[in-house]
Structure formats: structure tokens, C-alpha cells
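note to self: dont lose this again. the chain is below, predicted strucutre after it. 350 aa total, dont forget to put it in the shared folder this time
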Amino acid sequence: MPIGTFARRSGLTAGALRFYADSGLLPPAEVDPVSGYRYYSADQLGRATLLRRLREIAMPLAAVEAVLGAEAEEASRLLDEHVADVVGNAAAARRKAAVVKSALGGVPGLPIAALKGPVLADAVEQVLTAATHEPGMPVLAGLRLEAGDDALTLTATDRYRLSTRTLVPVEPPGRTWAGTVDGDELRAAAAGVRRSAVVRLEAMPYGIRLRVTAREDLHCRLLSDAWPDHRLMMASLDEVTTRATVSKDLLLRALEDQPGERVALHVADDEVTVGPADDAHPGVPLPATVTGRPLRLWFELTTLYPAVSTAIGPDVMLDLRGDGRPVTVRSADRGDLTTLAMPVRAHPVA
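---
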């Protein structure tokens, strides 16, 4: 078929086909020796389409050539490698853009709080376990920072979990401020934050600046979407009806041994029993200190397990509020990290 027809069928322009022919990636099936016209065969369409798709994801010519000549497994590996490079470059570009935007107009940063670097880094990593990337709700990938007169509160939620931790600054903030910071960028900055004895947070027009000891400042973007009104939800929580204190390690081990995606938690008689949601097998009884009425709840394993695993200390305290109500998971002796975990319906669908 002539080059124009092949171009329409492959989605490549005639100019692109000439370029790929000259580069050796897609030579024509035949070239008229007199006119120089190029002709392509139908069995070249697959290679042409793949070539177009690889270029659409900004793959360099050398990498395209390697993919076209590779077996499926190696080609897949090369694709993953390219995508990882693209994502890494995009993240670096976002961080550099945040630095540039922070400098626009020469506006000085508004001091938010000064905190111990290792403490802030730990809090960021712990709380961000409750964040998520959800299409249409980018704010759920963020970390909410709220500075009060004498504390800084970090909060993240995926709507099924909500983790929050309150930190006491080394210096009083002296003002109130709130903003939602890009969670991925803050997580990436945590390594530099951890190595600094003191980190000073400053609010900029489009992000926050983290001033670290003897190193270049770190910058993270602010997310513009509205943050869920978690304080209203916290204020409307029911009274605790049942409280259980149990070994964190034993509880995690019992959760890890569950075969399904859902797990049942039965709290009664100085025990917390962890079992399958369908009651097909006996649960694992764990010794616990229990007060209040017996209660049985069901959870998605991906909701309950992270809530327990991030608790600080050897024992976790579970505050239960009744069927279908959020459960508070926190350390039995250190309560500054708190996670709310939402159970699923009392009678799970088979």
C-alpha cells in the first residue's frame, strides 16, 4: 500500500514514516527504484502501531528499538523501567516547580512550626498510611497540617481509615494555619527531614518550605481541593461501649493468618478473637483486657491491618462503639497517634 494509506491505517504521519524508515526502525516493504515512492505491506501494521504507542509514552528511539527487538518478558521489563523513569522525572519536576513558585514575587515564608526532625519524619510516615490515590479525589493523597497555638496536627484519610497525630513543637507556633500538603512529596522529603535535628515549617503561597539543618530547603506543594470535614466526624462519634487492650504483635500475627479479604473481631470475656468473616473456621483467641459489653465486628483486612501496624508501643487499645460504628485504634500508653477504622456491614455478603 502507498505511504499515505499506510499512514492512515497505522496512525502515523507520512513524515514520521519517512523518519522511521531512515532510522531503520520501520523500513518500507518496497521502494520504487524510479520514482522513489515507498510502499508498505499489511503485515507491517502491527509493528507500526506498536512503534506509535511507544513514542506516545515518550520512549526514546534507542529504547523503542530495544523493545521492538525483544521477547515479551524483556519488552515488559523495558516498559516498566521507562515508566519508572518518567514518573521519577515528573516528581522531580514537581518539586523544582514548587521551589520556583515559592520564590515568585519574593514573598517571605510564614512560620508554621519548628519540630524535631526525626519526630516529624516518623509522624509523616505513620499518618500517611491512611492516605490513598483515588481518581476524582486527589485531596485524599494529601496530608492535612493544622497548626494551633501550641501543637501541630497531622491527619490523613482514605474514607475508611483516618489517622491523626498531634506533635508538640520545640517552639510555640504563635499563630494558626491549615493546609493540605501533597503526600507523595512530603513522604519523599521525610528522609531529609529525619536527618535534621530541627525542621522549621514555613507556609508559602503555593506550598510549604521545610528548612532543615545544614542542607538545602525542601519544598512540597499544597493541594487546592477542599479537605473533608473530619473534625465534624470526630465530634459526632458515639460513646465508647467496649474497650480492649491486646498485644500488638499477637493481633498482627492473627490478622496475617486470616485467609480471606475480610476478618471478624469478637471482643468478650477477656479475649479478642480474630477469625474469618464467614465463620467457616474457628478464630484465634488472644488474651486481652476487656471492659464493656461483648461486641462482634467485621473489617476489610486492608483497613484494620494498617491501623494496628502503625500503632506505637507493644499493646494497642481498641475503642468500640457498637455495630457498624468506627473503631479507634491507638497505643495503650501513648495516645498521640490515633487511627479510626471503619467496619463493614455486620452480615458480610457471601
